[in-house]
Amino acid sequence: MDYFIGVDTGGTFTDVVIMDDEGHFCFDKAFSTPKDPARGVIAALENCAKLIQPKANMNNVLSQTRRFCHGTTVSTNALIQRKGARVGLIMTKGFEDTLIITRGPMGRSLGISPAEAMDFIHTERAVPLVPKSLIRGVSERVDVDGEVILPLNEEDALKMARELVDSGVESIAVCLLWSFRNNSHERRIKELISSIAPNIEVSLSSEISPLIREFERTSTTVLNAYLGPVMVRYINNLKGELTKHGLTRPVQLMKCSGGLTPPQYIEREAMATLNSGPVGGVIASKYLAKTMGYQNVVTTDMGGTSFDVGVIYQGEVEEESTPFVAHGIPLQVPTVKVVAIGAGGGSIAWTDGRRLMVGPQSAGADPGPSCYDQGGTRPTVTDALLVLGLLDPENFFGGRKRLNRAKAEAAIQDKVAAPLGLTFMEAAAGIYEIVTAKMADLIRKVTVGSGYDPRQFVIFAYGGASPAHCALYGEALGAKEVIVPDTASVFSALGTVFSDIKYTYARSELCPLEPDPSITDRVNRVFQEMEENALADMVASGFPAGETLLLRKIDLRYDGQLNELIVPWEGKRLTPEAMRDLRQHFDQAYEMKFGQGMSRAESPLEIVSLRVEALKLTEKPKVLPEEEGPEDPGPARTGARKVYLKKGEPMLATVYQFDRMVPGNVIVGPAIIERRDTTIFVPLGHEAKMDGLRHIKIRTGGQK
User: Fold this and answer.
1) Residue 482 β-bridge partners
2) What pLDDT is attached to residue 642?
3) pLDDT at 342 (0 to 100)
4) 602 burial via Cβ count (<10 Å: 0-12, 13-18, 19+)
5) Strand bridging mode 671-674 / 679-682
6) Helix 405-412, helix 424-448: angle, nearest 10
7) Alpha-carbon torsion 309, 44, 254, 217, what sign?
8) Spatial distance between the Cα atoms of 410 and 371, rounded to a whole number of angstroms
């Protein structure tokens, strides 16, 4: 028996999915261990392996594993907590302050919430990842056409490298002007650094981000240098632990682009692992939506610390070319677009004496919600769910974690109810209502703000906490249907298993989109060079060139604009005829994003960058549906309990055990479906049905 394993390390839990080659799977989780994430991975694997069969153990499973895929928050946590490597930076002389000055308002107002961005008095520029004392400017200059107009002063470069090494840097970033046109100076600096410090990691902007825009390119290169040593240490530690327990296959790492990368490339793609965890859920949604016949999906992931929303439109995920991964820190890497707010199960409820607030602060895994009885005293969303009757204190985490209702009531009473003159039950209902409304509002902004009508979408609700809220935020949006996948609580881990090996390449080549032979030849030549590099990297990674799928994309904008759109292009060569098709695709994409009639047929187009994606389609386990049985869920009924919501008196909700349900069962709300890893709430006026894949499909109040 061969196995496929997906692991996702979150802020509160580490999730594992194990699937065999016949389509059977099991899943479980363990508490994350931020100080040593590998321990959380091993614990989750041990828990999950026990579910395969009574005598199975983790070593046996790992020794028979065909693919091991991993999404991790190690890089994200290192950035948030500013615990990355000590980095030195070498720039072109005269441009040493690029990271400090940033570009326009970017360093001050982007990468933070709108409320913080508008608070000009208290919002300052972000502190750079590299202090000014570790930045050096070297004499050299390359012009916009790649011509050397000032040779590299190698003596100065070597001196600066020695100074940085002597100051204790763990890695060095090199970002010279127009190096993506001619990278000879950057490559030479790397050789000089290696000659005196061969163990120092060096990130070159011409390799990491060969794109126009000096600040964004520098930021991305510095991010890679900052996170590279952290990720290398973590992956080496994890590989060592897994190898001791029998794993012989490499650990494939999830990237924010929605693809996987082998561990040997982590030094040059460390920055691409940022925010890769939530992306796994979007990829799993895309895969399952295709098998279920859905084209338009809103993905919603509520975990312990955040609520993440993504969009799949006409079967394709929405992307952004330069997301901000932290305050004032852009990442020049195409990323699956996931918008997040601080609204998770561990989000803390608080008051300023007049209003009830929820989040963005989180209690995390340690100390966690007050009901965990681990020393936490501040009320959270999980505490509210327990008090309202949505959670069973004896059945949380499959009974492995008993919740303390008295501690939850006390925290809500002391910190929220008493200051606002409410009962603890009214306060708990207010917490639930506010966090659910915040989630509905975010979905509305993400969909309507991009020109989509949420009524034309189904909602996938996953993560450990989403199923308790999804029917209500789905109803608020008028969504067609809300679907809680069978693997909802470990959905991002499942997404890593369904992901493909993906390398991305890009190069800025500014030129007008005109039928000029010099332009078409130049574009075709660059595409050919990038595709040759892509195939070479695939072969070096052990994947045959003949099994590699190459996809082309072009960044285009109207002449005179500052921002561009990425347009897929399926052509083999750019010709005058292909330009007309490209123009049509761009106009359609422009109107989709900015509104019908907003395209400008009279305005010339400009090519900004060329991109190539190299895909190696991975072997994926089968997903086999079961035959549907009776509608009556009677055998799964275990009792009933009171649930209190703000809109009325307590209601009596029927409780069902998920594991006892069979495909075809229909449940009418108010009801609670309990699982060992999550709780699904079916409100009054809603109906839920289990399909052949054991997904729960909830018809909201307005969609009967």
Assistant:
1) 459, 698
2) 94
3) 82
4) exposed
5) antiparallel
6) 80
7) positive
8) 10
What gap in Å lies between CA 469 and CA 467, rounded to an integer? 5
**Model pLDDT, residue 701:** 57
Q: What was the pLDDT predicted at 341?
A: 84
Cross-strand pairs, 637: 656
CA–CA dist 583, 604 (Å, integer)? 9
The pair of structure tokens assigned to 217 is 């390119």
H helices, E strands: number in the chain: 20, 35
Q: Cα dist. 404→345, 387, 407, 409, 643 in Å? A: 16, 10, 6, 9, 17
Domains of the chain, first to last = 3-78+236-255+265-273 (3.30.420.40), 83-232 (3.40.1360), 276-343+457-496 (3.30.420), 501-616 (3.30.1490), 634-699 (no CATH)
The H-or-E segment that residue 301 falls in is: strand 297-302
> Which amino acid belongs to residue 566?
I
Structure tokens at 339: 């918008």
**Strand bridging mode 251-254 / 65-71:** parallel
Q: Which amino acid is at 426?
A: E
Please list, in sequence order, all residues whose beta carbon lies within 8 angstroms of the beta carbon of residue 532, skipping any fewer than 6 positions away: none
Residues of the chain below pLDDT 50: 704
Triad 448, 452, 454: Cα angle to 5°: 80
Strand 297-302 with 260-261, pairing: unpaired
Closest CA to 104 of 20, 214, 269, 236: 214
**Hey, what are 546's tokens?**
């003949």
In this structure, how many other beta carbons lie within 10 angstroms of the beta carbon of residue 455?
12
How far does Cα 144 stand from its chain's mean position? 35
Per-residue confidence (pLDDT) for residue 239, from 0 to 100 = 93
CB atoms within 10 A of CB 87: 28
